Amino acid sequence: MFEPDIEMMKLSEIRALQTERFVKMVKYAYDNVPMYMEKFAEAGITPDDIKSLDDVHKVPFTVKDDLRKHYPYGIRAVPLDRIVRLHASSGTTGKPTVVTYTEKDMETWNNLMARCYSSAGVGSDDIVQNCYGYGLFTGGLGFHYGAEILGATVIPISTGNTKKQLMMLKDMQSTVIACTPSYALYLAEAAEKEGYNPKEDFNLKVGMFGAEPWSEEARKRIEESLGIKAYDVFGMSELYGPGVAVECKEQNGLHIWSDEFLVETIDPDTGEVLPEGERGELVFTMLTREAMPLLRYRTKDLAIINYEECACGRAHPRIMRIRGRSDDMLIVGGVNVFPSQIEHVLMNIKGVGDQYLIIVDRDILDSLQVQVEVAPEFFNSPDYDQTGFAKKLEMEMQAVLTVRARVEVLEPGTLPRSEGKAQRVLDKRTI
Ligand code: DLL
Which atom of ligand 1 is nearest to the CA of 235? Predict the structure, then answer.
């Protein structure tokens, strides 16, 4: 463990620390960020009304739009000369949202990342091939400095150039790969095409995957094809970046580093706090952030939080796999469909490849279309029958989704591959 004293805290100790930090943070945000002073005035409260975690529901939410409104320098509690770094997330429309860090914020973030690595068993003797994008995206530098703090060797190769990635995996004998899970699937596929045998030619042991939702089935495929243990890492730029939560050796939920983050689950429609164990939108309060404090930040990510102590000994609550975001839920003929449900069904069927694309098209009365690649071995086998396979997939999907999806089965290698976050949905209604 990187910080055993913190990582092994009992839930009661975590709660006590959270209470102390939360009360302090509310006052800090109110005193230093004009937006919070306004929000509190609107809600008719002052920091004096917030005495314990039980008062959390009195604090107004913060949403992504609040950050956009405060473009370019965001919600800032310190003068610019104390900002040592900024990152930005590319908005799909308009200006990006900018996030800022003080020196102490950087130290906190780097330590959180080092904890994540060590939770997956990565240590100073490891060689980390970091294929997350370096730049405004938090993935590259987040995974970079976390590994350095740990004393590991970092290969800052960034995204893309798949042939070079494969060459480095072999020549440098990298033991850890950090990238999006969709890129890991692509790398495994490309390795085979380029004549590598990942289990023999590479020396990989661990993968640190995140930045997009992925299924348990995708994990199995990645672990089998690369011969590694695949760990899930969660984060978002507004909350430093990657490193908010990570799986431990149990691979049964992602521990939220709760000395730094207070999490709640709310009903995304009403904003009501949900009882423990119910699936809802994750809401985070950062407990020590200096440059850009965020109180009750609505993430739109949907998940269940598990408060039971884990077999690894850590009591930091766990996010059970993120199901997707409230804003990528598709409503098809009045039925809610999560792309992750489709992935779950597809990846469980033998013969289905790693790539798929969900298309919603207004011209066909909002019906759903799914393009799926066939796995190369199956495609080349005498049992493969394109029409029959498409019918089979349609039936399996209808049983789970309760809406009909037209399935188009494609040859291996047809759909575009991604080097970063995969685009799995094409909603033509919004174009
Ligand atoms: O994706 C930070 C990150 C980089 C996390 C590398 C992990 C690894 P953003 O670009 O701001 O930040 O996107 C944040 O990505 O709200 C989730 O919807 C999604 N996301 C991130 N990690 C996971 C994960 C980075 N492990 C948004 N599982 C979040 C599911 C994830 N979704």
Answer: 5
